[in-house]
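Narrative of activities, Objective 1.

The group set out to show that a structural description can be obtained from nothing but a protein's sequence at a throughput compatible with the screening campaign. Below is one input-output pair from the validation batch, recorded exactly as produced.
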Amino acid sequence: MCGRYVMARAVGDLVAELEAEADANLELRASWNVAPTSDVPIVLERLVEGAVHRQVHVAKWGLVPSWAKDPAVGVRAFNARSETVAEKPTFRAALKARRCAVPVEGYYEWKKSPDGKSKQPYFVHRKDGKLITFAGLYEWWKDPSKEDDADDRWLLSCTILTTVSPDAGAEGVLGELAGLHDRLPVPLEKDSLAAWLEPEGGDPRQLLDLVLAGAHDVAATWQLDPVGADVGNVRNNSPELTVPVG
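Output recorded for this entry:
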């Protein structure tokens, strides 16, 4: 799964690496301990006067479907299982038409000790320090309690797709990932990112199959570093959280 991650890139660096564009007023809060319900950057593509534009927006992490009566439902929808995302009412409409990518510098996962009494946090990231982009979905939710012209009437939210972790007997990084958790956030390659974001993309199930097919290959290039227990408290937020220990 993915319940905590790092996103501390400046706007300029983020849009450059993602080959995207952003509103001049876009503000991003650097965070080394992003948790569900936080405001996070997402990448999506939109058709503007017949041309495709790749854009960075800020969304609340935890998807709120358009039909929801209360945005609190997003608290439980920060991840979406790839096996059921096409059928679940919360996600199926977004899978068809509102796909995005969620850029991260790495994410945290906790490994249980053999006796089950403690957990060791790990920071999972690319060896070269570049961004990982996870397959995601986004939705717009209209707040019925606010006036039509209110600036904050519309809520943009998102979720991150997950898949099964590699087999426990896998070698190298994949075997290490298997030991962390039975779920893995779905990473995107450059080509699968382009296909996933395409606003007039093909059959959503085929797109899902495409990104899942390369997920473990991408993950095999990552690095896992044990980090300190301070990351367990979301109030702790500094670069030191990602420093390896031991």
